[in-house]
UniProtKB/TrEMBL annotation:
Gene3D superfamilies: Phosphatidylinositol (PI) phosphodiesterase. GO terms for biological process: lipid metabolic process. InterPro entries: PLC-like_Pdiesterase_TIM-brl (IPR017946). This is Uncharacterized protein. GO terms for molecular function: phosphoric diester hydrolase activity. It comes from bioreactor metagenome.
Length: 30
């Protein structure tokens, strides 16, 4: 199950690198 989740997360990162980066940046600035 964990591998499936990690695979989906990797897919999201490769599909939306800019979006993920913006989310991480906004989380860090809180």
């Amino acid at each position: 199950m964990k591998n499936m989740i990690e695979y989906e997360v990797d897919g999201v990162f490769s599909d939306y690198p800019d979006l993920i980066r913006d989310i991480l940046n906004s989380e860090e600035s809180k």
